[in-house]
Please model this.
Amino acid sequence: MIEVVAAALIRDARVLAARRAPPHRLAGGWEFPGGKVEPGESDGAALVRECREELDVTVEVDRRLGTARGDATVAPIRLSLYAARLVTGEPRPHEDHDALRWLTAAELASVEWLPIDRSLLPLVAAALRVPPSPLPDANRAGRL
Ligand SMILES: Nc1nc2c([nH]c(=O)n2[C@H]2C[C@H](O)[C@@H](COP(=O)(O)OP(=O)(O)OP(=O)(O)O)O2)c(=O)[nH]1
Model:
């Protein structure tokens, strides 16, 4: 099983989608930034490394949203998707991608996702509807 991690980078209720560039065999398919976990590497460290390599940004990894498996006869991949946020930098595509889009929950179905990602989209939509950080206690108390 090949362990792959990917980041649902969320900003202002939108998530970043990236389109695979040619000549990759998956060119044209949309995915979440990420890649294979190296031996001895944690999921979080792999995500931070991949986002730096692919997008030239620093990210902070939050909770795992879910996992999905590929058809083992086609691609023995287990994809773990994590919510994440930008710390520094503005994402821009390098060699791996030729387009980036910030999608709202309503726009998630408007791009052609890689097959493994499709089952994870409802989890991403739910994460987009949840505020990224809890309200400060003072605010919460004021609303009770
Ligand atoms: N990054 C990423 N990969 C995905 C997603 N969905 C999906 O099926 N994959 C597949 C595509 C690839 O077969 C595999 C990830 O491999 P990769 O080529 O991105 O890994 P890598 O950056 O470590 O690249 P490499 O050094 O092996 O070339 O997982 C996704 O949302 N994000």
Remarks:
- The longest helix spans residues 43-55.
- Strands lie at 2-11, 14-20, 30-31, 34-36, 58-69, 77-88, 97-103.
- The longest strand covers residues 58-69.
